[in-house]
Structure formats: structure tokens, C-alpha cells
Write a structure and sequence with these properties.
Chain A: One of its GO terms (cellular component) is plasma membrane. The complex is a heterodimer. By secondary structure, chain A is α/β, with parallel strands linked by helices. In chain A, about 50% of the residues lie in helices and about 10% in strands. Helix content of chain B is about 35%, strand content about 25%. The chains are: A alpha/beta, B alpha/beta.
Chain lengths: ~650, ~280
């Protein structure tokens, strides 16, 4: 139950949740509201009717007595309505006891330190294992039967659930950095609990509260039904039901009123609980809006001129007008056109959210659920076979899947997360060869050893029998590259393979990728946000911003600072360098980097003109209104800008961060 | 290993002021994780002095003990040997609640992930007010102080009323810096604070640090595996490997004329394009 905790680092989820209640929540709240209203007014309106003795006993349903009368001739409909107040009151009281005691216990267990925690959690576990109603029966039997005993019993029996949830949620929140930071500031444990932990676990607790209210109502009614709860002459629904049941065979309608009331109240509270849980789920998951009606009115792809004419014939990958769309029609990647030549390493440079990873995943047909790709053309070329269409809709044939698995190799960002920790390396490395290429087990192992040797992993034969955790981080990274290279793919897609690595391991990974490119002529699409790494490894660079391609240039030009697009220039200026050219010093002698003020637009809020215009130091009025034109002097080189190469304003504009 | 102390301020580049007075001295500190056969020594007798008004960059591969050293200095990890001197007082022996409180207020750690280090349910103002007074702090009571801290990290006063999710990663990291400054600590430890950020926003955080070093004479330990970033912000640099300090010196010396082969290896690996 972590629905209330916003996922770490998920930027899409950090926008404020929209305030819309689900249908379930509305029904539940309406039901509960009606019952509360009834509880308030019923004793005033029907109180006298409910206690008035009548001459006609055990009467069936009639116009005067809708639900008949009981053994003393009292109107059961009125009694049921009047009983709403004691039933709801007692349930609320018991839930209050359960939640207060439980949350306090769960909190104490956490505040009390490791030793108390170990003991406390075991005690809570044992209490949970004990059935609540049995516990309540025991407590009610020890105390004298009556509403007080029942409320205490049910409250005590319900508290372990709250204690366990509080302790578990607290443990997960307490491990997060902001709690650690507050501790280092000297914030005391009680204040830590009140300000940092409880607000962050409130949502799941609220859900439990309403669900627990439904349970409590049922349990209290059951105890009253058994004669342990409310005692005559007082009555609640459970008690009415018990009385009604005595004449079930002669006058069944007597039992209907309280029975229906218990069910309705329980359902309403459960609906509220489920509705709250669903709302919490929605507010922490990325918002998926209903499909916008006008999403397809102007297809930007068809507005972009076809630029695949000059692409060399031996290009491995040709992508034209690729778009990645959310279910609501928002384009996360918006009309990207590029190609990767044979033996070419093409870098994709961009910040998080720029669409670089989605572009690569669309090429590999590995888009996450809820997204789909369209393109005018997106093909993997192979001189010995047909072109493989990468965005064709419909189900994939076995042949397509085989070609995807063998012709595209993927190197993921996190090597430790992309191997299955429960399986030995050998099986995982050779899987593609055996499943898709029909290579024998022995031959597959031989090739795996050869490949591990190539990426300079020591003792490759023994490694095949090892589990991923037995390899160091750098070795895992190289093993993953070996795995991607094994089927001799035509294209390797490397998704930020160096981001999580320190400099020494990073250098190894880059060396291995370069060696593979030189040995097999493997084309590569290398995704990174690191200007230095891209400049080191790649032949050509695609710069992406806000889901669009803004510039294609050679790495030599990038390294020399000969970029044309203001965004590329800004990225270069914002990057500190290790080599001997120090950043420019300002009047105070400070070395200052040119920060880019503001932040990229969200995909559904892209301006009509250039997406970079609001942050651009060289902006002119036309940039805001009109989409920038594509200047493409040669295939594989382009810049999408109204004023390419204009950089004069870059140094003069004071940025937000530098005051 | 003999005590390695960075050279005096004479070798610094213009603009930064430093002194020879150490704010914190780490004296032969060793740290161990685990018990029995899993016992692993993470720090082997590390000696390091953090001089007032200077920034020491700490570099090394992952697993070299950088973060453990930071935790020893903050007091989250108790060393098995050696002393940690805060203004000539050995703080490793401090146990009492009041002493721990004092120590925690003297050394502040800025965590790596700006998305996890700010409470999503507290406004920025409340977060910073809590740093000013952890027992009774409130956003309205400390409004002026909060606004001053926000201004120091180039954020407007209106930021105080907003929640962390309304800010970008770079802005969040600046808020985390403001929170650390609000404590007025003798020493700030920045543990990989730029590695979770995109390059365009990383620059704004680095610029704020540069301005703070100039204006407040900040004493800082800056831990990072990004050598270019370390070179940009540091007066002095310490290179760490397998729990030992390999080389300590001014940034100009270590980057310009490294003495140790390991430092040279690190530099050549860390400068793509210069192959």
C-alpha cells in the first residue's frame, strides 16, 4: 500500500493531482451522508413512533407499518431509522479507538529505536494473526456485556491493522532522504513523525480508516446480534436483527429493515474506501486524459518535407517523421527524422524529458504501455533481406520478432537491473542465439565465451556459470554489451549506458563499444545527456529538445563549438570542461557557467513556434509564432531554427541562476 | 600514511579567500562495515583537513569510500579508529543528546537526490524554517530569514509558499542548499549534488555554489565522480582509492601536474575527447 507516496524521480507524477472524484467515491459519500443525516434527525422525527406500543403484534408489511411491527406492536421501520444513530455512533467510536491506538503504536514502534522496533513488530504480527471478532468476544466476555465493552473490544481488535500499516509505511518513508535531512538538522522524533511522516502516509491510512469503519459496523452489529452488545431497552441494528430473526419463519419482513440497513452502511463505507484508494492511485500515476478530439486535425508529420531522399543507400536505419504518442494524442516525440549509416555511431543528446530514450525505444519496438509510434517511414535495412518496418501496426509475426531480437541489440542504462539475478549468466547471454537463431547450446556457449573475451572479461568460461551479482559493476556493464553484440546485430541501441558509471568504468565501456564498432562495423545509436561522452564516441550527433530534433551535426563540429542551434550552443556553454580551457571568468574572478534559465515545456504545452524560444538567448518575435524551418545542407546535417548560428546575445543575457 | 594537508592559500586562484585554520580535521580515521568474515575495512587511516573558507573536492571511483568519509564527518558512521576534530574538539566521543545536536548543526550534508530530499507535503518556507529552528520553526515566524536564504540561492521570496513539486531539479537542489545554509554550519558536505541533474540545470547549481563561496566564505567538502565539475568548484582536491587518500593538493596542482599514477589514470579516463 504505497499509493500515497509519489514515486521517486518520476517527474510526470510531480504535477499537482487533479481534483476529480470517482463515481464510487461519490456514491459512497452520498450514502454515508444520507445515513449521517438520518442519524441526526431520525430520533426527533420517528422517536415517538419507535417506542409507541401498538395493539397489533407481529404484523406483516402494510401501508401503515411498512416493515410490520414487532412482538410489542412497535413500528419496525421507525425503529430501524432511529437505530441508525447508536449504530453509527458506536462504530465511529470503535474506529476512532482502533485508529488512534494503532497509529500511536505503529509510530511508537518506529520512534522507539531498533530494539523496541524488532519486538514491537513481532507483537503486532501476532495480534494481527488473531481473528478480530474472537478477540472482541473474549474482551466482551471479560468485561460485562454492553455497548461499552463491545466498543473497547472492537477498537482494540482493529488497532493491530492500523499499527502494522503505520509501521510499514513509516519504515518506507523514514528511509527517504528528507527524513534523514530533518534528523541531521536536529528535528526531534515526535516532530519528525508529525511533520514529515504522517502527512506522507495519510492517504493509505485514510483508505484503511473508511474500510475499517465498514468492518467495525459489521462486527458491532454481530456482537449485538449475539446479545453481547447493546442491551434492551436500547437497540441498534444488530439487536433489531436478533429480535427480528426470532420470528423469521412467521413474519420474515421484521428482519429485512435492519439487515438492509447494515448492508447499505457497510457498502457505503467500503465504497468510500475503494474510491479514496482509486483517487490516490490516480493522483500518483501520470494523468491520462481522455482522447482529445482535435488531436489529429493538423498532422505535423505531413507538414515536414520528406528528407529521406539523400540518405545513403547503405544506411542501416532510416527514420522519417517519427512520432511517439500518448493515448490522449499528445506527441512526446514529435516528427523526428534521421538515419544511421553503416558502421556509423550516432549520438542522441538531450536532457531528461527530451524524448531521446523514447525515440530509441520506438526504434526497438519497446515502447512502454499506453504509448504508440507512428512514422512516415521507419525501417531497418538489410542488404540480404526485406526492409523491416519498425512502426507497422498489428501483431508481430514470429519472423518479425526474430529479426528484432537478432538485428537490434540493446544496451540498457543499469547493468545490474537488466540481468535476472536468479539465473546464471550463461543462459541469459545465449538466450537470443538459442531461441531465435537455432544455435546449439555448445556453439552458443562458444560464441558467448568469445564475446566475453572481446569485452575483456577475465576467465570467460567460468563467468558463464556465475550469477550476475558475482561480477563487479564494470564487468556487468561489459557483459551486457557482450550480450547485445552476441547475435551480431546490424544496429546497437545504447540507452545511457555510461550515466550511472564512474569515470574509470565509463572509459572501459566506451572503449568496448568503439572496438565493437571497428570490428563488426556495427551501427550504433548512442543516447546520452553527457556532451563530453557523446563528443568522444560518436561520429554524428542528433540534438533533441522537447521531443523534437533541433540539430544534426558532426562530432568534430560539436567538439569545436561550431554548432548552429542556440540550444546546442547553450548546452556546450553550460558544461564544465576538464581540459585546459577554463570557463570564462567574470568581473569577480569567478568562473561562471552559462546556465539555461527556465525549463523545457511539457509535451502538451509546446508553444506554436519554436519550443526553445522561451529560453533562447537569441530569440526574435518570429520564433514564438512560427515553427522554425529545417536547414539541411546535406543528408545527416541539419538545423531547425529561424536564426541558425546567431549566438551574439548568449553572453550578454543575465541568467536567472547567476543573478 | 603521512598526514597530507593541502597547501596554503597562496596557491589558490584569484577570488577565493582561504585560511590555514582547519574547521574540521580528520585524523587517522578508519571505518569498518560488517562483522566476522564479512568484515570489510572501508577507510584506512584517512587524514584530511578542511580549511576555513575553502572548498575541498573529493574524487574517486564508486566504492572508494568517499561517501563513507562524508558520513563519518557528519556523524552517521562511527569510526573504529582515529579522531574527527571539530575546532580542536574530538567529536567522535560525543554521545549526549545536546552534544549530538550541536554536532549536527555544525556539519550539514546536502544529499544527492533533490527529488527525495525535500518533504513533498511541506512548503519550501516550512522546510527552511525547520532548518533555522528544528524545534519550533514556522514559515511565518521566520519569514525574513527564509527569504534571505532563498535570495542567497537566487530564488524569489514567492518560492517560500510553494511545494517542491513545482520546482525543477536544479531549483530543488538550490532549495536543499538554502536549507543547509539556514543552519549556519561551520562545514557543508555536498555529496554528488549535481550528478542527478541535467547539464543545463547543473550549471545553475554550480553557479550558485560559486557565488556562495565568494560571498559567504563557505567551507565545503564537494564529493563527485565528475572531475570537470570538481575542478570547476574546488580550491583543493583529494583523490581517494580503496579507502585511502592517494593524493591531496590544490586543484591547479592535482589537475595540472598530478603526482600519482592513479590520479593520472583517473584524469585520462575522465576527459573524453582527449584520447
Amino acid at each position: 500500500m504505497t499509493a500515497g507516496l509519489p514515486p521517486r524521480r518520476d517527474r510526470a507524477a510531480t504535477r499537482p493531482p487533479r481534483k476529480r472524484l470517482g463515481a464510487m467515491l461519490v456514491i459512497g459519500l452520498a450514502g454515508l451522508g444520507l445515513l449521517v443525516l438520518l442519524a441526526v434527525v431520525a430520533p426527533w422525527i420517528w422517536g415517538d413512533d419507535a417506542d409507541r406500543l401498538g395493539p397489533e403484534v407481529h404484523l406483516g408489511s402494510s401501508g401503515e407499518h411498512w416493515l410490520g411491527t414487532d412482538a410489542l406492536g412497535r413500528d419496525i421501520f421507525a425503529r430501524t431509522l432511529v437505530a441508525t444513530r447508536p449504530t453509527l455512533e458506536l462504530s465511529a467510536l470503535a474506529t476512532l479507538i482502533a485508529s488512534t491506538v494503532g497509529i500511536a503504536l505503529g509510530g511508537l514502534v518506529w520512534v522507539g529505536g531498533p530494539r523496541l522496533r524488532a519486538v514491537g513488530l513481532r507483537v503486532i504480527d501476532v495480534m494481527i494473526a488473531y481473528p478480530a471478532v474472537i478477540l472482541a468476544l473474549a474482551i466482551a466476555a471479560i468485561l460485562d456485556p454492553g455497548p461499552k465493552a463491545c466498543v473497547i473490544a472492537i477498537g482494540a481488535a482493529g488497532s493491530p491493522t492500523f499499527a502494522r500499516l503505520t509501521a510499514n509505511l513509516t519504515a518506507s518513508v523514514a528511509g527517504r532522504d528528507f527524513v534523514g535531512s530533518a534528523r541531521l538538522l536536529g528535528v526531534g522524533p515526535l516532530r519528525l513523525m508529525r511533520r514529515h511522516i504522517l502527512p506522507n502516509i495519510a492517504e493509505p491510512l485514510l483508505v484503511l480508516l473508511s474500510v475499517s469503519y465498514a468492518h467495525t459496523l459489521m462486527a458491532l452489529s454481530a456482537l449485538s446480534f449475539l446479545g453481547l452488545g447493546v442491551q434492551l431497552p436500547d437497540y441498534d441494528w444488530g439487536q433489531l436483527l436478533a429480535v427480528g430473526l426470532q420470528s423469521l419463519y412467521t413474519n420474515p419482513v421484521e428482519a429485512v429493515g435492519p439487515a438492509v440497513a447494515v448492508v447499505l452502511a457497510g457498502l457505503s463505507a467500503s465504497f468510500v474506501g475503494d474510491g479514496l484508494a482509486a483517487a490516490a492511485e490516480r493522483s500518483s500515476a501520470p494523468a491520462m486524459k481522455a482522447k482529445a478530439s482535435g488531436a489529429a486535425e493538423s498532422d505535423p508529420v505531413s507538414a515536414i518535407p520528406d528528407r529521406t531522399a539523400g540518405v545513403p543507400d547503405d544506411a542501416v536505419l532510416v527514420i522519417d517523421g517519427l512520432r511517439v504518442l500518448r493515448a490522449d494524442g499528445t506527441a512526446l516525440v514529435d516528427g523526428v527524422t534521421f538515419h544511421v549509416g553503416a558502421g556509423e555511431i550516432v549520438g542522441v543528446l538531450g536532457e531528461s524529458g527530451s524524448g531521446k530514450t523514447l525515440t530509441a525505444m520506438a526504434v526497438a519496438r519497446l515502447l512502454p504501455g499506453g504509448l504508440h509510434a507512428t512514422a512516415r517511414r521507419a525501417v531497418l535495412r538489410d542488404p540480404g533481406a526485406d526492409e523491416l518496418d519498425l512502426v507497422a501496426s498489428g501483431s508481430e509475426s514470429a519472423a518479425t520478432r526474430r529479426r528484432l531480437a537478432t538485428e537490434i541489440g540493446i544496451v540498457h542504462q543499469d547493468p545490474s537491473a537488466s540481468f535476472n539475478p536468479a539465473l546464471k549468466l550463461g543462459g541469459q547471454l545465449t538466450e537470443t542465439l538459442r531461441v531465435h537463431m537455432g544455435v546449439s547450446r555448445r556453439e552458443a556457449a562458444r560464441r558467448a565465451v568469445e564475446q566475453l573475451e572481446f569485452v575483456r572479461i577475465t576467465d570467460p568460461k567460468a563467468r558463464l556459470r556465475q550469477y550476475p551479482h558475482e561480477l563487479s559493476g564494470g564487468m556487468r556493464g561489459r557483459a551486457m554489451i557482450a550480450s547485445a553484440l552476441l547475435p551480431r546485430p546490424r544496429l546497437v541501441i545504447a540507452d545511457e549506458p555510461t550515466t550511472a558509471l564512474d569515470v574509470v568504468v565509463r572509459a572501459e565501456v566506451l572503449r568496448v563499444l568503439r572496438a565493437a564498432n571497428e570490428r563488426d562495423g556495427t551501427a550504433m545509436l548512442f543516447i546520452s545527456h553527457d556532451v563530453g561522452v557523446v563528443g568522444d564516441l560518436c561520429d554524428r550527433v542528433l540534438v533533441m529538445y522537447a521531443g523534437r530534433l533541433v540539430e544534426e551535426l558532426t562530432t568534430a563540429d560539436l567538439r569545436a563549438g561550431r554548432a548552429e542551434h542556440p540550444y546546442t550552443l547553450a548546452l556546450l556553454a553550460a558544461t564544465p570542461h576538464l581540459d585546459d580551457t577554463p570557463s570564462p571568468e567574470d568581473a569577480n574572478g569567478d568562473r561562471r557557467l552559462a546556465a539555461i534559465p527556465g525549463h523545457p515545456p511539457r509535451p502538451d504545452e509546446r508553444p506554436p513556434g519554436c519550443a526553445f524560444a522561451p529560453r533562447c538567448p537569441a530569440v526574435s518575435p518570429i520564433c514564438h509564432a512560427t515553427p522554425p524551418p529545417v536547414h539541411a545542407p546535406a543528408p545527416g546535417l541539419s538545423v531547425v531554427c529561424h536564426l541558425p548560428g546567431r549566438r551574439s546575445a548568449t553572453e550578454e543575457k543575465p541568467s536567472e541562476a547567476t543573478r | 600514511m603521512t598526514a597530507l594537508t593541502p597547501n596554503g592559500p597562496s596557491a589558490t586562484r584569484g577570488g577565493s579567500v582561504g585560511s590555514d585554520t582547519p574547521v574540521m580535521t580528520v585524523d587517522g580515521v578508519s571505518a569498518v562495515f560488517g562483522h566476522g568474515p564479512r568484515r570489510k575495512t572501508v577507510l584506512h587511516g584517512v587524514d584530511l583537513a578542511l580549511l576555513r573558507g575553502r572548498t575541498l573536492g573529493l574524487v574517486g571511483e564508486s566504492g572508494s569510500g568517499k561517501s563513507t568519509l562524508a558520513k563519518v564527518m557528519v556523524g552517521l558512521v562511527r569510526p573504529v579508529g582515529g579522531r574527527v576534530l571539530l575546532d580542536d574538539t574530538d567529536v567522535t566521543r560525543w554521545r549526549g543528546r545536546a552534544e549530538l545536536f550541536t554536532r549536527r548543526r555544525q556539519v550539514q550534508l546536502i544529499p544527492q537526490d533533490p527529488y527525495a530530499s525535500l518533504n513533498p507535503r511541506m512548503t519550501v518556507g516550512e522546510t527552511i524554517a525547520e532548518a533555522i529552528d528544528p524545534r519550533r520553526g514556522g514559515a511565518t515566524r521566520h519569514r525574513n530569514a527564509v527569504e534571505r536564504r532563498l535570495a542567497q540561492v537566487a530564488l524569489g521570496a514567492d518560492a517560500a509558499n510553494r511545494y517542491p513539486h513545482e520546482f525543477s531539479g536544479g531549483q530543488r537542489q538550490r532549495i536543499a542548499i538554502a536549507r543547509a545554509l539556514a543552519v549556519e554550519p561551520a562545514l557543508i558536505i555536498a555529496d554528488e549534488i549535481t550528478s542527478a541533474l541535467d547539464c543545463s540545470v547543473r550549471a545553475e547549481v554550480l553557479n550558485v555554489l560559486t557565488a556562495l563561496r565568494r560571498d559567504l566564505g563557505l567551507t565545503m567538502l564537494f564529493i563527485s565522480h565528475d572531475l570537470a565539475v570538481v575542478r570547476h568548484v574546488s580550491d583543493d582536491v583529494a583523490v581517494m582509492r580503496h579507502g585511502r587518500l592517494v593524493e591531496v593538493g590544490t586543484a591547479a596542482d592535482v589537475f595540472g601536474a598530478p603526482r600519482e599514477p592513479y590520479t593520472r589514470l583517473l584524469l585520462s579516463a575522465g576527459s573524453p575527447g582527449a584520447r
